[in-house]
Design brief:
Number of helices of chain B: 13
Oligomer: heterodimer
Number of helices of chain A: 11
Largest sheet of chain A: none
Order of helices and strands of chain A: HHHHHHHHHHH
Radius of gyration of chain B: 25 Å
Distance between the termini of chain B: 38 Å
Helix content of chain A: over 70%
Order of helices and strands of chain B: HEEHHHHHHHHHHHH
CATH class of one domain in chain A: Mainly Alpha
CATH superfamily of the largest domain in chain B: MetI-like
Strand order of the largest sheet of chain B: 1-2
CATH topology of one domain in chain A: MetI-like fold
Number of strands of chain A: 0
CATH architecture of the largest domain in chain B: Orthogonal Bundle
CATH architecture of one domain in chain A: Orthogonal Bundle
Chain lengths: 266, 303
């Protein structure tokens, strides 16, 4: 049966997509505005990009953020892969619903709760075992790993469910050990999911303000923390320039990944 | 012999695959909530750590308990906190409803598009999620403020002659939350609408139902799992939202996430901040359980 889609659905969709994209578009356009004021178009200029690249505080924070994001994404993917295998492949076991529960809860848990509880843990651990001595990039990374794992598990689990097990069974029949089968058969089949979940965890970490604010210490300021303190003071065209660069990177990433995944499928 | 050995190795391997993520989440996710609960019963003090010990070791297996309900009494007695909680629930609920109203037609349209168009439309829903949340909220400051883009446009068109005050109002907060959380609503809605059995709509039409009737009695009930999942994905995190009320809200949009932030970062009162968090968690228990149940239902349906 051909379903008639009512006209108002189309207009509602057009409205919704405009709602999603017009604000972002405005940010991009005004990053090229010579004038600092939103209401005045002072002509095309790239001066805010120049200022951005001379802003050492911002660049330093960006470097810290990149480090945290790379580390936490990598660990989150490893942990998330293990958890997904346990959930999808091990059948029923005691504590399964508990494992699923703790892995799903960070998806919806308000960030202030995650941040505050994490900090309380670090302080209590310091009292008890003397570690972590101070709060720095390591504590931020641990916090980021913990909430990113939840997202990684969603992506990897859904991929793992669709993998054809006959390939693994064939390898097992031919006498390969389970670990070898996993490394040579399962892992390559999971590659697209591993890549996209790594990027997702990376982005989540790069983007996080609240949890990082709670778990950071003096000297460990991440990019969102600098952006936030600047945005609180009002509109700043340098932030528009930064937003445009980040957006461009995301688009390139999405493009490259979808290409890679498509090639993988062939 | 080697068979036995590899069997043990197998078992060990399985166990570590299971235990590593399990232990990680227990230590870094569950345990912190117990510590939070403990600290909410302590008192603030100057020093490191800035709270008093609740349990004092009294030799052997004995502990003296120095817990106090003071923080909770304080939260109940001061109407500001009560107002912040009810306000958060109200703002989160209204924003969830707005998300549903914008997201439902969107998800419906996507699910009925041709496969090629559908992928592009889906990608366009997900893409903003990959861009910085902070910057998407920031975008609205430039649009909403008195000398911002929207006011400028409306005045240039002669629709208004004085700027509308939009920034730092409840309106801005509703807008900000609906805007930021829309993808979380659309994706589960789409997932359930995509799986829908269209022959039921056909049957309804054959039995003489008008499109609107068919929509209300077939499409809506069929997509109920998506409606609940999407609503919870918006409602639960929105309750504790800090960035949006801080940047877009004002004095009359006090939300509990911001109260917690201020108690912690400005007043440095960790025990009170913990008590605020504990009550927030109590409010969230019901929606959280509802959401978890639903996840399990979906899970079982998939298998």
């Amino acid at each position: 049966m051909r379903l008639r889609t009512p006209g108002f659905v189309f207009s509602a969709m057009a409205f919704a997509y405009a709602f999603l994209y017009l604000p972002i578009l405005a940010v991009v356009v005004y990053s090229f505005n010579e004038s600092k004021l939103v209401t005045v178009w002072g002509g095309f200029s790239t001066k805010w990009y120049g200022e951005l690249f001379r802003n050492e505080q911002l660049l330093g924070a960006a470097y810290q953020s990149l480090k945290v994001a790379a580390i936490s994404a990598t660990f989150a993917v490893v942990l998330g892969t293990l958890a997904s295998i346990a959930i999808v492949r091990f059948g029923r076991f005691r504590g399964k619903s508990m494992l699923q529960g703790v892995l799903a809860a960070p998806l919806v848990m308000p960030e202030v709760l995650l941040g505050l509880t994490m900090l309380m843990l670090f302080v209590a651990m310091e009292q008890l075992i003397g570690w972590p001595e101070k709060r720095d990039l390591t504590t931020i990374s641990i916090a980021h790993i913990t909430f990113s794992v939840a997202y990684v598990v969603v992506v990897i689990q859904s991929r793992l469910k669709t993998i054809d097990r006959s390939l693994e069974e064939a390898a097992l029949d031919l006498g390969a050990r389970p670990l070898k089968v996993f490394m040579l058969v399962t892992l390559p089949l999971m590659f697209p999911a591993l890549l996209s979940s790594w990027l997702l965890a990376f982005t989540l970490s790069m983007d996080d303000l609240v949890i990082a604010s709670f778990t950071s210490g003096p000297g460990s300021t991440t990019l969102p923390m600098v952006v936030f303190s600047s945005v609180r003071l009002g509109v700043n065209p340098q932030i528009n320039a930064l937003a445009t660069i980040l957006l461009l990177l995301v688009i390139i990433c999405v493009f490259v990944v979808s290409r890679l995944i498509r090639q993988e499928k062939r | 012999m080697t068979g036995l050995m590899s069997k043990t190795a197998n078992k060990l391997g399985r166990l570590s695959v299971l235990l590593i993520p399990f232990l990680w989440m227990t230590v870094f996710f569950l345990l912190p909530f117990l510590i939070l609960l403990k600290i909410s019963f302590s008192q603030t003090r100057t020093g490191i750590p800035p709270y008093t010990e609740v349990f004092e070791w009294a030799g052997g297996l004995l502990f003296k308990i120095h817990g106090t309900m003071e923080n909770f009494y304080f939260l109940i007695s001061d109407s500001l906190y009560f107002a912040a909680y009810t306000n958060s629930i109200k703002i989160a609920a209204i924003s969830t409803l707005i998300c549903l109203l914008i997201g439902y037609p969107m998800a419906l349209g996507i699910s009925r598009a041709s496969p090629k168009v559908r992928n592009i439309l889906l990608l366009l829903v997900i893409l903003p999620f990959w861009t910085s949340f902070l910057i998407r909220v920031y975008a609205w400051i430039g649009l909403l403020k008195n000398e911002g883009l929207i006011n400028h446009l409306l005045m240039a068109l002669g629709i208004i002659d004085q700027p509308l005050v939009m920034l730092h109002t409840p309106f801005a907060v509703y807008l900000g939350i609906s805007y930021s959380y829309l993808p979380f609503m659309v994706l589960p809605l789409y997932a359930s609408l995509e799986k829908m059995d269209y022959s039921l709509l056909e049957a309804a039409a054959d039995l003489g139902a008008k499109p609107m009737q068919a929509f209300l009695s077939v499409t809506i009930p069929q997509s109920m799992p998506g409606i609940i999942a999407g609503s919870m994905l918006v409602f639960i995190p929105a309750i504790g939202e800090f960035v949006i009320p801080d940047l877009l809200g004002g004095a009359n949009t006090l939300m509990i996430g911001k109260v917690l932030w201020n108690e912690f970062f400005l007043n440095r009162d960790w025990p009170l901040a913990s008590a605020v968090a504990v009550i927030m968690l109590v409010i969230l228990v019901l929606p959280l359980v509802l959401w978890q149940r639903h996840q399990q239902v979906l899970e079982e349906r998939d298998q």
